[in-house]
Amino acid sequence: MSNVPRNTLFEPKALPVFSEVQIDQIETAISKHLQDNLEAVNKLTKQTQPSWSNLVAPLEELDDTLSKAWSPIGHLNSTMNSDELREAYNACLPKLSAYSTELGQNKALQQAYQAIKDSDQFATLTLAQQKTINNSLRDFHLAGVDLSDDQKKRYGKIKSRLSELSSKFGENVLDATNKWSKLIEDKALLAGVPESSLAGFKQAADAQDKQGFLLTLDFPCYLPIMTYCDNPELREEMYTAFSTRASDKGPNAGEFDNSENMKEILALRHELAKLLGFNNFAQYSLATKMAESEEQVIEFLEDLATKSHQQAQQEFKELKEFAKQKHSVENLNAWDVTYYSEKLKLARFSVSQEEIRPYLPAPKVIEGLFEVAKRLFDIKIEEVKGEDLYQEDVQLFKISKDGQLVAQFYLDMYARGKKRGGAWMDDCRVRRVQQNGEMQIPVAYLVCNFTAPVGDQPALLNHNELTTLFHEFGHGIHHMLTQVDTAAVSGINGVAWDAVELPSQFLENWCWQPEALAFISGHVDTGEPLPKDLLDKMLDAKHFQSAMTMVRQLEFSLFDFKMHMNYNPENPRDIQAVLNEVREKVSVVPAPDFNRFQHGFSHIFAGGYSAGYYSYKWAEVLSSDAFSRFEEEGIFNKETGQSFFNEILSRGGVEDAAILFENFRGRKPSVDALLRHSGIA
């Protein structure tokens, strides 16, 4: 990001110009956008006969212009974080929150929408336009439009403070992750770690002009240590540092502690929900989801737990017996589980993630991913050169269908310092018809944190990373292949949160299909696809410890939902106590007392999954059942792929997710496919 004399980032363009971001102008420019928008809204609400064309369409244009200005700033804050950018970003958060609250509580605006809903013209609007108005009327209520003036002020303060706290939570996790590192000079201490990982550790040390191997808490470093390192003391040290990030425990205890942030977030969420007439924040959360009640969610999760728990216990028992009999380990500690699980998997199936890596070089995988998309949805994906990119590893691609440009996306695959951990898709531009009549095509950001290429060799992915890439691309095509022209229900907008994971989890299935892996894989040296014997072993191992994985996800989901559902402001329960109680009932792997998983649980404290983490499992039922139709009709059946495109991807949030699913599957969803795909009897 350079300090050039002009700042055109805030001028609407097809793509952001990242190099022209001037950090010192961000706050001023965003403030002006917000002020201009509020003045425009004020004029719009003074019209005597509101209509789609004179009210909603101009509002959509205002929203889109603001989004175009803010989206790249938020993206850079997540992927190229710096002290200066963070300061400018955080300075804007309360302003954006206040703006959102002011619009949501604008009685004149709500009445204008209601007037359109009550008028004869409503029947003449498209389904997307009607859904936009219905959703907006619901959202006015959720934003507190019906509250008294004092309550509205309190609502605004709560929203603003929650925005600040969520941002601080994420910053603490990032800072705690970046703070810890360890230089290993004696290679013998890293015995067991694959050469591909060691090369990455050495490259990290070289980048800091240090001799040896630099270990960090970034996942591409942390996971290989936990999986392969023969040194139990080093595994324990890294596990301790990772599982106590941003907490009151561990090597940086108290320095980036999220304890008070979490308490305040929960208290404010509960107060917000009560203010709006809900019993608790979980009930408030469900107002925009497929699930109909708290009881339904708890029943769904506990039913899956009941079906999985016995098998999970058996899997963990087998692991402990293996570690004891084959490796003389009497007590299997938390930092030993991943290590001995890999050894058991290797002993049982003779297959390792590292053995698969050479067959999954990133360029070949990307080419294979695009081929899957082409066969399923008849789209063509090509790289775009010469555009303004914010980092040298980032790529830009365009998607065409029937010879027409339909979307573009940025692909940012590799871990680096100052980049938020995890993987995600975010929208940069949304598909909509602009007021000048031109179609704005959607643009997405696809972000992962894989091990970067070392030297001249391309990055080599393991199979877990392959499924992560397909997952995020599934979100991407949901956003990019929409045929809806109205922003509020275009792409993933307006889609119930517990259905938004459907396309992403659905696409992961092709990572297990021999017919697909034949062209997704190709040895880094020879180009040969994954050998049949290795593929067979991998497929045999697909369900290895799947029940343990299932109960781990259910632990997260139940903890999140129960914590929000049962919150008592008079006597708030200790967050650790809630987690311990859930673990006692659901989990099979004991967590050490110092484990502070919740302090780094960004999904629910810094992301959009609060009282909604169950959505992963809820949507997995949908995605597994949707894929079962491809199993019946052929995994590259063009008609089935076109049906998924027509009924799910292209429809955005125009209709309820349950209706869209039934249109595609011909019936209501069944949990059977999920249990079968998970290898749970």
Structural description of this entry:
There is one protein chain. This protein has 681 residues and is of the alpha+beta class. It folds into four domains: 18-104 and 106-142, Glutathione S-transferase Yfyf (Class Pi), Chain A, domain 2, CATH 1.20.1050.40; 180-243, no CATH class; 259-351 and 546-613, Neurolysin, domain 3 (Orthogonal Bundle), CATH 1.10.1370; 358-484 and 494-540 and 616-677, Neurolysin, domain 3, CATH 1.10.1370. 56% of the residues lie in helices and 7% in strands. The protein has helices spanning 23-44, 52-79, 83-104, 107-118, 127-142, 149-179, 195-207, 219-228, 232-243, 259-275, 281-285, 294-327, 334-349, 353-356, 362-377, 463-480, 502-508, 514-520, 532-540, 546-565, 575-586, 602-605, 615-633, 638-647, 657-665, 672-677; strands at residues 181-184, 213-216, 380-384, 395-401, 404-414, 424-429, 432-433, 439-440, 443-450. A hairpin with a 5-residue loop joins strand 7 (432-433) and strand 8 (439-440). The longest helix is centred in the middle third of the chain and has 34 residues, at 294-327. It starts with 22 loop residues before the first helix and ends with a helix.
